[in-house]
Amino acid sequence: MNKLEKIIFWSGLIIISIDNIYWQWWIKLTKEPIVGGDIFTGWSMVGDVIFLVVWIYILIRIYKKVNRKE
């Protein structure tokens, strides 16, 4: 992996971890469903799904690139 790919991988992992911790905190604090909150709408979850799909796509490309070099 080159430096850019490592940055993308680790930053994606950190963002996903922080996001998951935040949503768990939100659920425990408010005792409400995520979509049912007044502050957040379903677009937050759509953004999470889009981010995950893009991040997984990048991981697959990195994996294929590394295996091609070997």
TrEMBL record:
<keyword id="KW-0812">Transmembrane</keyword>
<feature type="transmembrane region" description="Helical">
    <location>
        <begin position="7"/>
        <end position="27"/>
    </location>
</feature>
<keyword id="KW-0472">Membrane</keyword>
<keyword id="KW-1133">Transmembrane helix</keyword>
<feature type="transmembrane region" description="Helical">
    <location>
        <begin position="39"/>
        <end position="60"/>
    </location>
</feature>
<protein>
    <submittedName>
        <fullName>Uncharacterized protein</fullName>
    </submittedName>
</protein>
